[in-house]
Design a protein that fits this description.
Helix 1 packs antiparallel against helix 4, helix 2 runs antiparallel to helix 3 and helix 3 packs antiparallel against helix 4. It is elongated and about 45 Å long. By secondary structure, the protein is an all-alpha fold. The chain has one domain. The chain starts with a helix and ends with a helix. It has four helices and no strands. Helices cover about 85% and strands about 0% of the residues.
């Protein structure tokens, strides 16, 4: 999803404003899914896997919101920020998966 946004920006298929709108849609979806995870985890005893997943969702939402709040209307600057954020999120996801593996 996020990868599609910066690819479209790079291909000049969308502009920074549309990219931010698309990211806002991703955030809305993540917030909903995070709420579902939180309700699921509240029904279970301390489940560290779910708690860590909720934390991952929170980090993702925070990082995406920082892109949305960025004031630069420059497509290249937004695309670069999205790419670095995407890499950071992939690293966080890999850390989460590695924790699951033990």
């Amino acid at each position: 999803m996020l990868e599609d946004v910066f690819k479209k920006l790079d291909r000049k298929q969308i502009e920074a404003i549309k990219a931010k709108d698309d990211i806002r849609g991703i955030v809305d979806t993540l917030v909903k899914e995070k709420g579902e995870l939180e309700s699921l985890s509240s029904n279970l005893e301390e489940n560290q896997i779910l708690l860590d997943l909720v934390d991952l969702f929170e980090d993702t939402i925070d990082l995406l919101n920082s892109i949305i709040s960025e004031n630069s209307p420059n497509d290249v600057a937004i695309s670069t920020t999205i790419k670095y954020t995407y890499i950071e999120l992939m690293m966080k996801y890999m850390d989460y998966i590695n924790q699951l593996k033990g």
